[in-house]
Amino acid sequence: VLEYDHIKKLTYGAKGVGSHGDGTVQFLAKDERAQTELIYYMKRKWGMQAYKFTIKPQRKVRKAIIPVAGFGTRVFPASRKIKKEFFPVVEGDLIKPAILVLLEELDRAGIEKICLVIGEEEKAFYDEYFSVPLPPDHYQKLTGKMQEYEDYIMRLNQKLHFVIQQERKGLGHAVWQCNEFANGQPVLLILGDTIYQSNTEVSCVEQLLDAYEKTDRLTIGLAEVPIEQVGRYGILAGKWEDSDERLMEVGKILEKPSPEVAKENLGVLMKDGTSKYYMVFGNYVLTPEVFCKLGENIAQKRMTGGEYQLTDALEAVRKDKGMIGYRIDGRAYDIGNPEAYRRTVAQFALLKGEQ
Question: What are the tens digits of pLDDT across the range 84-113?
């Protein structure tokens, strides 16, 4: 088989695994197209079933942070009993807590360690969900597919780390609790009350991580926002660095500006001559410099609006080292208030069903 010219064209070589006729052969395909063609050829020509196996290079970012501490005032009274990140959403044929959707996306993206920022009273809740297996009688009632998923949830627990936020002093304060966890390395930050849906086969998290790989600088996900809604979000502006208008050198960042201020200062010029506005998508790759700035702000008690703002630290790093924005090809769905949660449940399930 290895001597066939067609196989040689599609591969760099092969090796046998196992012995005495009960092993397998592994081919190193030249690219994804060659991989697909080789599988088809082996089946059609030889009646041999082949399977895809892709080894991805290790990423520079291997840790992630999800702040989830907080009562969930806007989703009361459900939050009396259920933390908002455990609110259910439909994905495919499964009903999942939102936090599980996030954790799966991080796992698929190659993240090795995930730090959850929680309140002291919440640790037992997470332990029960991710550490305690189902009782045997419940487990046996599950289908084989569901049993595999239960096993997967237990395996996810091996990636989880927890830090306790004793006081609620803003997003910047929550992120600072993970300084020791970050340990001077770049880390991914995603918000615990948001889930993501990519428009492509590459997840929203992977899109951002790929962008960081190209720049090694503080990188923030971007999404277009109508001018009348800019007052709800952090808004970034700058100049596009590529012809696809995906990668932006950020020149300004402002938290919840008025439409008038945005029109005057935050429009991003597009190649078609129009101006558009871009908000923070909800995922970030934070560099060690961000944690240094957060530490300085906390030590010197520099607050904005009575809280330690992540935006203040991001802006300080932007001025000193620069900041990259990446326009994510996807959508972010909020679960933090009743109206947003209603839309999320309907639209997220619909999009998953279409896929």
Answer: 899 999 988 889 999 999 999 999 999 999
The phi, psi pair for 97, rounded to 5°, reads -70, 145
284: closest CA among 244, 241, 250? 250
CB 196 within 8 A of CB 204: yes
- Report which secondary-structure segment, H or E, holds 320: helix 310-321
Cα–Cα distance, 126 to 192 (Å, whole number):
14
The model's pLDDT over 277-309, given as tens digits with 9 standing for 90+, comes to 999 998 999 999 999 999 999 999 999 989 999
- Enter the pTM of the model: 0.81
Is the four-CA dihedral 32, 38, 44, 49 of positive or negative sign? negative
**Dihedral sign, CA of 305, 308, 309, 314?**
positive
CA dist 57 and 97 (Å) reads 30
User: To the nearest whole number, what is the mean pLDDT of the chain?
Assistant: 90
Angle at 275 between CA 272 and CA 277, to 5 degrees: 130
